[in-house]
Amino acid sequence: MLSKQQAKVFFLGGTLLFLAIFVGMSVHSLMIGIPENTNDSDITEEVILGKQLWDENNCMGCHTLMGEGAYYAPELTRVYDRKGAEYIRTVLNAPNGWAPRGRNMVKYDLTAEEVEGLVAFFEWMNRADLNGFPPEPSIGN
Amino acid sequence: MKFKSQKIAYHFFALSMLLLVLQIIYGFIMGFAHMGYDGLHELISFNTASATHKNLLVVWILSGFMGAAYYIIPDESDSELFSVPLAKLQFWSFAIVGVIAVAGFHVGWWEGRKFLEIPRPLDFLVAGNVILFLVIILMTLIKGKKSSTTAWVLTMGLVFAALLYLPGMIYFDNISVDSFFRWYVVHLWVEGVWELIMGGILAYLLIKITGVDREVIEKWLYVVVGLTFLSGILGTGHHYYYTGGPSYWLMIGGIFSALEPLAFLGMTVFAVQMYRKGNKKHPNKLALYWTLSTAIVSFLGAGLLGLAHTLPGVNMYTHGTLVTAMHGHLAFWGAYASLVLAIISYSMPLMTGRNIFDNRTGRLAFWCSNIGMFGMTGAFAAAGVAQVYLERIAGYDFMTVAKEIEPHFFVLILAATLFTVGIIYFIINFLKFGRPTDEALKSDEDFEALKAD
Ligand code: HEM
Ligand code: HEM
Ligand SMILES: [Fe+2]
Prior knowledge:
The structure holds two protein chains of two kinds. Chain A is about 55% helix and about 5% strand. Chain A is mainly alpha-helical. Chain A is elongated and about 70 Å long. The N and C termini of chain A lie far apart (about 60 Å). The mean pLDDT of chain B is about 95. The longest helix of chain B is centred in the middle third of the chain and has 36 residues, at about 175-210. Chain B is mainly α. The chains are: A mainly alpha, B mainly alpha. At the A-B interface, helix 1, helix 2, strand 1 and strand 2 of A face helix 1, helix 2, helix 6, helix 7 and helix 8 of B.
């Protein structure tokens, strides 16, 4: 039977080995994989402004982006394709706050520049290669 | 209780109870909003409720872990805590930072990073507080007369949990990179180092409650935490499938995260076997219930329901839907919430000298909360699966689907009510214990004697 000492070696050895592999893969992802997939070089000042607004307003507290966030409001990774820039502007500028089918979105007082930042952010997001996410609906349409 | 200083744990447990109640209130606000009743929208919008619900969860669990460490480490190292005044300072600063954070969410002082919404300036206070906590724990261990594997595994879990908080504090312009590091915290916490904490606390409880030989229990503890890191570290890849990471994560994340349930299964087998081997003489049945349920429900919620959506082919469809919320609830409940309730049930009689070991209130608390949580999980599952089919497979618009699944949230609220009744019973028992007292010193010696056969 396994002794306590052997169990300890299994724990320490396994942990160190897999940690080393994980760090290696992380470095590759951060230096090469993610910048390529997300077109890192296209991140303009406008996109950064949009990202900061996304952060500051905790949009992720209702929506998902890249499938991350909360499930109260739509997935926005491909919203630029699905709805287009004009629609996004309308939502963000809605004078009494956007409320599709009675579900209220928080009302924001964004400047024109800020709205354009968010549009640019969604346009950038729209082009990211996410290994096929979100999936195309396979039936219906 | 062997040492007077262990009493400080009570403060942390009381804070846990308070924050749990608040967490539930915000859960109801979101449940009603999903059902179509968002009357509080102007006052507490959904994203405020959501940040508050998730952060209160993390903070009350961490508070429970800290209390557990303050109770367990003196016992395991056979010495008083390094410094009680410092521990009190640590408690109050922890509570105050928590209150400021939660209040901040109501006025938009936050960052949109799920589970880590606490803004960066406050992060530094959190970090300082945790360093103080770790210094107290480590000094106690170092100056202690004994040292044990259980104590070290628990402490290492706490130290790594603190270290992993740091990558979450760095800012990036690329949201995909932001998210990459967010998972260093969130995933490597719940599917990594928190399992060390869980293993340590479970081992302690099993040693105390079952009377099985420490060497045997600690050997299996190494195996369980070994399995955790073997699978859990590379298992982080299941969050990198569709968030901008390279495609090799589909394979690596898929394989290793599918192995993660083994660690939880290990936890279940470990606890159930030790219970069966043990002498079953310990009178604290409520602590035993919660200890075993932690070991079992964590496997169901984290292991099985995690496995259900972790393969890339499935996750492509379930990613970012209510299916995730289904798993999130039962996993957090089974593994970490129940664990905190177990250590509270075990230690409160020993700190207060009031022997509430097995009463009706305690049993009702156990059954109502567990059955309620299973009901909630079922409601989220029904809503989530419907959402996946309607939105992801049939291509209906998000809000069309949201309207369609509203009735499931009515079921959610019903189950959540039963769950809340259970928690209220638990808190009634907690209050019945009263405050810890020095008269309870040496109270566990009676139980030590139970082991000698
Ligand atoms: C009465 C009790 C509760 C109710 C009604 C409730 C309801 C909810 C709702 C509606 C959400 C938001 C889903 C969304 O993003 O749209 C949520 C999120 C969450 N709740 Fe609860 N909750 C309750 C108790 C708990 C408890 C006790 C725990 C932990 C043990 C918990 C853990 C979570 C977690 C981890 C999330 C985030 C899930 C995710 O985004 O995947 N909740 N809850
Ligand atoms: C006690 C342990 C665990 C807890 C507390 C837990 C909790 C959670 C929570 C709260 C989320 C949502 C996170 C977010 O979106 O920010 C999540 C996501 C996820 N968990 Fe777990 N989990 C645990 C263990 C596991 C295990 C063992 C597996 C796999 C076998 C697993 C598989 C997943 C997957 C695949 C997701 C991503 C869901 C998505 O794509 O939306 N989890 N977990
Ligand atoms: Fe994970």
